[in-house]
User: Fold this.
Amino acid sequence: MAYAVKAWNDFKNYQSTCYRNYLFASGGLRAMGSTWSVLAPLKGLGDDVHLIGGEPHAASTAGTFPDESREDISAAETAGLGFHSCSYLKLFTGEVIRDKIAITDKTIKEGYPKPDLIWTTHLCSQHSKWYQEVSRRLGGVPMYPIDMIGGGNAEKDPKIVNYVSDQIEEGIRWLKRVTGREFSDELFSRAARNEIKVLVLWGNICALNRHAPAPLDERRLIALFPPAVVDRTTDEAVKLYETLLQEVRHMVETGQSVVPDQRYRIVYFGIAHTYGHPEMARILRDAGAEIVASVYTFGTCGNFRGIVNGKWSWDPLDPAWVDGLDLSTRRKTITELVKIALGWPTWQGVRSYWALEQMARAMVTEYKADGLLLAPSRSCETDFRNGYVGMQRIFKSEIPTIEYDSDQVDVRKMDLPGAQRKTELFVHLMEAHRRRSA
Amino acid sequence: MNNGKILAGLDAGHVNTKAVLMRGGEILGYGTEPTGFDPVAAAEGALKNALKTAGVAGSELAGMVATGIFRDMTKGAPLNVTMTVPDYVADAKGALFFNKNSRTVIDIGGNIHKAVHYDQNGNLLDVIQNDKCADGLGIFYTTMAKALGVSEQELSELALQSTKHVSVAIHCAASAESEAIDLMCQGVDVADVADAISRFMVERVAAMCTTMPLEKEVVVAGGLAKSKALIKHLSGLLKQDVSVLNLPEYAGAIGAVMSDREL
Amino acid sequence: MMNKSADTIIERFRSITEDPQGYAQSLKGKGKRLAGYMCTHVPEEILYAAGMIPVRILSSHVSQAMTRSYMHETYCSFSHDCAYQGLARHYDFLDLIVTSSSCIHMGEAFNVWVRFAGFQEKGFLIPYPHIIETKPAATFMVESFGEFKRFLEKSMKKSITDEDIEGAIQVYNHTRRLLKRLWEFLRRENPPITGPEVATVTLASQMMDKQECNSMIEQLIQRVEAEPGKGPSGVRLMVTGGACDDLGMFDLIEHLNDKASLIFIDSCTATRYFWFEVPEDRRDKLQAIAEGYISRIPCPAKDNVPGTGEKKRFRFIQQFIEEYKPDGVVFLYQRFCSPQPMDVVALKPILEKLGIPSIDLELDTTLPITQFRTQLEALVEIIKGVIP
Assistant:
């Protein structure tokens, strides 16, 4: 019998509450930005900082309001943002253009709440420019983009760690100037420890999928990581993931899964594509094929051991290690945060093809995959589009591998019929491979 | 397969629907009908044509297997197809039927092109299929032939007469068509434009093929395999010999019949 | 009419752009060590100081689909074509392929060379800021350049001294000044050289031995300075955008039904390549190079001033508009480029306020001449309708 995750509603409520706070807070600070950056510095400004992150908000809006999302994207294109641009960007900017915002609790609000500041990174060649555009359209919002550099082993390179840390240190000075607020290192270090803890906890939860049956599927993983991307700096977020970790451990101990019928284990490299993903999941489910590991859901907000002796390891980190981190000074706190962020699979893979390949290889081995499903997004600049083309070439002779075109939130770019055909083909290839191996 | 029983194979494709009739290992007849907007009617039409060429009545059919993009629509009345198989499965079986030494078939269809790798029994080993941008090569070829005011055969013959290498945009058929017309506006020789169109198509197919090792012998299926210009360029780009199956457009339909072990 | 000698020099530059591999191989034949580079953020001075000739990898304008199974379809044609150069083994004779962290599309072209085209052992990626205006960028660049320098010393088995680097800085600054002087001719109402000719020289310079290049440009400037103008400018058109190494595009601009003159190109294959200088005679040479490269006209992929979100490139564009006085602007960028359109959408309102009409042309491997001609002629007609 399929297991129902008990923590489900708490996760949904946390996500909605974060968005509601941004929309309706009567005081405090509104901070907009990318969830690929470290969030804890913002919390040094006080406990009334309300966040909205571009990608998670666009993803959740697309899932909740497909029609609004189409309007948002069209509005952005009409306003001059290129057809080929990131669809998250267009949806997000489209809301600003239409002066209308929709959130996961089904609220649609007229009047876009203007942020007080923008705090972002530059994940791709377009990323922080998206916020430049939002800032421009809102009459000029102060913004601070952080260059994370990224790449394989980035967290071990002192040059990179110092560069990013220096920017964040400067960024904190900027936050004080722009907001006129004092910066509390106590609040900052607390938020930082929470941020790191959540990332480590999520890694532990993902690692449990190495068991058979894997306790969680991709659909549940996608639904359970939003608190970690929306606001991972709170005590509440830590508690959510500690509770979830306990629950998933229990599932493993008792052999339970949200999808008990798992005849084929799939590793998925692709962005969460809102439209079409349920279609692919249905085709796979009919064959008893489940995605048990995914670089997007694991790597967007999770930390693992990373590159060890030249090879990637998806082994989780010990959450207790986080409690022992020395965050006694601002610089130490910044440094630990930077190392954790640079250790994200996303930051490693986006700048180093070899790290991405290592991740895939390790994931296939550690998660005992029967197939590798690649779904590059036509809207995404990064490895979530391109890296998988090369990966198909490398892995195709080693394991059943199929690649289909997808898009994160633009249904027009989603090749649904093609993706369905290829998913069916993928199932056939896995079945044929298994027959041959028998 | 039981000898003596007449079986029909249907390949309900994007552009054309093909039907074959077979008894044992013998092809009795075949027929084609443009698919248009009614795949079921097209399948009926193709079957009727095949029955006519075979001199066989519909009531003599012991069973019917369908493949192709619209295969599921042929289930139920009036065709009552008894079994469907995916097109890549049918391609492998059909290719093997014509060439027992083949191990890879490249099928360039109206909308989709693929390469299928199989073993000596036609069992699937691997498949690579085009991405969205490369959709519609066959449809593009037909459209360009019309734009140049020639038949598809004539388009191939023109391409073979080309003396100057010109290029069209490679991203997709829409941009290629736009540039082909631009070239004509510039007064470029139609033979050179025809060759650019042929090379565009083959570039897309060949690029896809390089993702997967192509085990020999490599054969080509699909109606476009009849274009000598396409085959010339394909062999050149893949840097290996490829041979065209007999009745290449019927390989799928034949493979559908060959996939049936029950009838 | 320009005298034959200037034409001959320009023709020599053009022939280099038409056969860059041939030119590079001729350098190899003279015993030179060659380093291909894919992005103009590569600090060429360090390569030059190491005794290597940097040659830019540009596109071949051959329509090919080979790269589509290595890189996604929806990466720009320029990056596909550059990747193709490697896969087609056009540059196997290079001693090194280098890039700096660049836009993602060009980064992937570089990856294709390293992963699939045999450059695994002779490839180097220089970590380079993705946001050029961060305060700590210079320190980071100095460290990164230091690592690159040590890599080169090891592979070339020779030490790179401060004198070597200073010498290289001076050679490259000389190239930059010479190119700037050439472009400054186009400010005139009746210039003695055309925009396409200046673009040709600039493009060729990116793949040449700078000693030879400087000598040729010096001779060219001498000839050109003595010449009268080639005729009054037509409608003055400025191009701004991304990499465009198809000189046919610029020839097209000057062969419309109504006379139009190409008077400026803001792109990394034109003025963004050289419109800066590296400070000379500094004690810390790598620091000097970092400062110089930070002072460049920013590439849109790296342009976001922390604190304000300003696009610093726009300051340069406004300066060029004041100095070169275009009547119209052509936005020219690769289809599928992501950062360029983000700048276009912000720049257009500025141009509108300045009363300067503009059009967008998206580049691909091949140029749809007829379509582009139609659009350019429409722009010229709009301009002529707007200005008396």
